[in-house]
Design goal:
- The chain has about 150 residues and is mainly α.
- The protein folds into 2 domains: about 35 residues; about 80 residues, Alpha Horseshoe (Serine Threonine Protein Phosphatase 5, Tetratricopeptide repeat).
- Helices cover about 70% and strands about 0% of the residues.
- It contains 7 helices and no strands.
- Helix 2 runs antiparallel to helix 3.
- It is elongated, with a radius of gyration of 25 Å.
Length: about 150
């Protein structure tokens, strides 16, 4: 009887060890797959000294609905939700298509999502429509993106 109990106990230890080993292996494999998958840049991953420019608020005389969508987009952008931010910026653009600030914000989101071509188009429009906004005209990210094309 003692031999049977000892053998069962040894099997349980071995089973526990194998399960723990399998979980550890799977966790490591999952991490490697995520590391090899391209992902959006995240503001939280950047050092504080290299934080990029932030999206811009609309002027107070803009359409209230465009202001609301833009504010929602800015909020999501700051949380790193670039796709959701872009959806709101695009809604704001439908309402205020000649807003340099909206195009600038779309450009920022698209750049962080890796769509440099479309970001460049929006930065060009931001420069065109935002002639009275020095934050757009002096933007380093806008200048760097436009100078690469």
């Amino acid at each position: 009887m003692y031999y049977f109990a000892k053998k069962t106990l040894t099997k349980n230890k071995l089973l526990f060890f194998l399960v723990a080993l399998a979980i550890t292996f799977l966790a490591n494999c999952e991490g490697k797959n995520q590391a090899n998958t391209p992902k959006e840049m995240n503001l939280k991953d950047l050092p504080k000294t290299s934080l990029p420019e932030q999206p811009l608020e609309l002027l107070t005389d803009s359409n209230p609905e465009a202001i609301a969508h833009n504010k929602e987009g800015v909020s999501h952008y700051k949380m790193g939700h670039y796709k959701t931010a872009l959806k709101h910026f695009r809604k704001a653009e439908q309402i205020a298509p000649q807003s340099g600030e909206v195009h600038f914000n779309e450009g920022l989101s698209l750049k962080f999502m890796g769509d440099i071509g479309t970001a460049t188009d929006h930065f060009k429009q931001a420069q065109q429509y935002g002639q009275s906004n020095p934050k757009i005209l002096e933007s380093n990210i806008l200048k760097e993106t436009l100078n690469k094309t």
